[in-house]
Amino acid sequence: MSTNRPDPASLLPLPPATFHILLALAGEDLHGYAIIQDVAARTDGELKLSAGTLYRSIQRLLEQGLLVEPRERPAPELDDERRRYYRITPFGRAVAQAEAQRLTQLVRMARAAGLAPGRA
Amino acid sequence: MRLRLLRALLQLYPASFRAEFGEELCAVFRQRRREASGLLEVCALWLATFTETLGNASAAHWDLLKQDLHYTARSLRRTPGFTLTAIAVSAIGIGATTAAFSLADHVLFRPLPFRDSERLVKLWEDQSPRNYADMEPSPANYRDWKRMSHSFEAMGAYHSESVNLVGVGEPLRLEGAAVTADLFPILDVQPALGRSFTEADDRFGAPGTLLLSDGLWQRRFGADPNVLGRKVSLDDAPFTIIGVMPPSFLFPSRKAELWTTTRFAADNFEDRGDNWLNVVAKLRRGVGLEQARAEMRVVGEQLARAWPKENEHVGVSISRLRDEINDRTRLLLIALLGAALCVLLIGCTNLANLLLARALVRRKELAVRTALGAGRERLVRQLLTESLVLAISGGAAGVLVATQAVPLLSKLVPNTLPIAEAPSIDLRVLGFAALLSCLTGIAFGVIPAMRACRGTNLAGLREGSRGGVGGRKELLRSVLVVAEVAGSVVLLVACGLLIRALWHLQSVDPGFRANGVLTMRTWLPLPKYDRTARREQFYTKVLSEARALPGVSGAAYASFLPMAFRGGIWKVAIAGRPPDEKFQMASLRYVTPGFFDILAIPLGAGRDVSESDTRDKPFVAVVSESFVRRYWPGQNPLGRHFEFGLADRTVVGVVGDVRVRGLERDSEPQVYLSYKQVPDGSIVGYTPKDLVVRISASPGAVLPSLRRIVASADPEQPISDVRMLSDIVEDDTAPRVVQVRVLGAFAAIAFLLAGIGIHGLLAFAVSSRAQEIGVRIALGARPYDIIGMVLGDGVRLAAAGVVLGTGLAYAAGRALEALLAGVKPGDLPTFATAVALCLLMTAFGSLLPAIRAVRVDPTTSIRAE
After folding, report:
1. Which one, of B104, B84, B90, lies nearest residue B742 by Cα?
2. Mean pLDDT over all residues of chain A?
3. Residue among B20, B27, B56 minimizing CB distance to A52
4. In the A/B pair of chains, how many CB contacts fall below 8 A?
5. B10, B24, B49: best to mutate for the A interface, most A CBs within 10 A
6. I want to staple B521 with a disulfide (CB 3.0 to 4.6 A). Which of B233, B330, B721, B811 is the partner?
7. CATH topology of domain A15-89
């Protein structure tokens, strides 16, 4: 619960599963199963997170302060009381952005080397 | 039902993870289950869930372990004193136990290095009615056993031999064995180089063939692969080297350096009373030891009927080859293992106490962590990780201790087994040490961990600095200290009893004076020295020149030296008396004149053998006092006759008794015969071979001259076994000395640990009762009262430990009785000393805490509240 967060860059590179979880939570708070579905949809079914992998990642993300469990619940008609929802923190957002930037740079370098399509 | 299965599967996760996410995992599974349609998809879902749970659960455990290890490293680094103490204590305990185990495993438990070794047995002539339970069989009985029995796949024989090797560098005296051709197949060993013996090698008159040990091959033949076919001379007979055995082959004992065949002659089978073989057999598959014993009992009875005169009291006893080790050695090793375990237990107890104290001090920290949401399981796990890290570090250090200690213990490895002198620290031993470390870690970690976490709630925070004083926690720690004191009393008493036994044995008069006597062996080979006159020439030349050396006051020859060779007995018969089966053996020694003088064996009556006792004169004998007591009690023995060593003997002298069989065993009465009265080719095994020289100079000054003298008498004659007689006597008690030292070291460690335990407990009690003590002082308690209070606590603990320990020690003493050489297991001085030492230790352990208690300043201690 320390207040002085480490530099987002110190957590990079993120494991792919972690990055996808952060992406899924970037737009809205979700519960576990919704995250799995979101990730699967985002990757056209290529990445199907298992429940164990998901919650081990979530546990670490909670410990590192990238996620929190929000106090307020979603709109009652959408809420499933038994479910736990997760929300990305500003720090989590910063880490995801840093990771995205890292990946962008990698792609840029790959293009320059003629290893990826697009403009150098 | 499905969820129950899933929940069971989820048990694989760490409890903390399960508590946090278990419901979520179930919810996800339910959702997926709803979406799965058809049996195939449901099966696929289950399979996937199963594998991912296995993978993720172990990963989750690993994550926790990493965290705990990280935390442990930090917390141990913060308290280096505690960490080092804990590691040192467990290193000593685990090291001692590992060393003792590797020794006991080597000697007692590990299978012998032969295939199907559990089926290998040794057969003996059981002559219990004559007091010899395990007598070497005669060739004739061996042949009949082999012919008449069906319990064995094969049976072979060997006898140890000692030969002069000539033709490769300096003449050399070597130990080895002559084996029947079927022996090595029974042991299932093959030479590393060349071939093994065949039936053709083992026939009477066959040309001599020889197998070398790896050591001899390396040492004497430069590991020459072309050694096969080389001719050497053993005791003047030609032998051809046909092979080299592998380095691991140490049969019949590690002293053996070469093997030849027995090549029995027809006359070897004539005398059934001629006992000199060792018989090894392999039980048929499915035949048990008892079954074989039953069969051989019948065989023995048949032979007794067929040969009533020789075999009347001869049965057959069978023991496993693995068990060729005397009970005393076995007991000694088990005692050692027990003592080491005792040290380990005391060490564990001490560590548990240290951890308990530490955990109490850390109650606040633990309570904070609980308040922050760490479950009890996480805390227990954390504390256990800590103690396991300590124990495993201790275990690693302990293995180092053991590798250093094991060679020091090699004197405890008996040389009757075909095994190496010192055990090696191998995987088996390392596995044992690892297991021990884990058990140790759990043993001394689990109670403190459970204890520390039981009360961790907000009370821990509120209670302030007085956490954990008094009540049940203190009781537990007191019990641990009592156990430590009891354990150290047991070790002190056991060690004390063994020291007393050692002293007792060392004070036993061997019957001769060993100081200043140099001994060496010149084993004259046959047939070169077949004739008595030829041997006499050799003895006369060597002895006369040796006696003339400066620094030498006497020299003589004898068949064997006492304690160096313990057997060599012969039947005594006296005309007109029925033979008494139990008491008819006496040890037979041929000696030259002057032997008694040199060993200072007192001549009580009559005379020594003399140069004029030659073969054309009546055969004379000098007998020991016990011989006279046995056959002619209260009468004058001089001039009396008896039948012994194939001739009629006349007693001409009586000498004091000698402990031929060592200080711990009763010896047969002794008969000494004149070295000149040996018929040619008769009783050749007993011809004099041990030279004894009484010297006033240092052995190093005399030895080169003696070697020169022997070489000038016969350049091909090797010298072996050069030793001081006093060393031979010392060797008799050497295993005991080692044992006492080891046990003494264990006792000292245990004693120290118990002292530290008492000190630790009292110091902790004083510091946590500082306020109470301060109040007492403020209310007028005198220093005397305060010291009495603290000391009283210590003495009560010690007294409880002593009472418990004394009982256990008596039981241990009873178990060790066979090793005590007559010292009573309840020996009062030993117990008194042990108890006094324990009380002294308590006083010392309590002293510092007591002083600290007196120095408590009432104003500061009360204000601190």
Report:
1. B104
2. 86
3. B56
4. 49
5. B24
6. B721
7. Arc Repressor Mutant, subunit A (1.10.10)
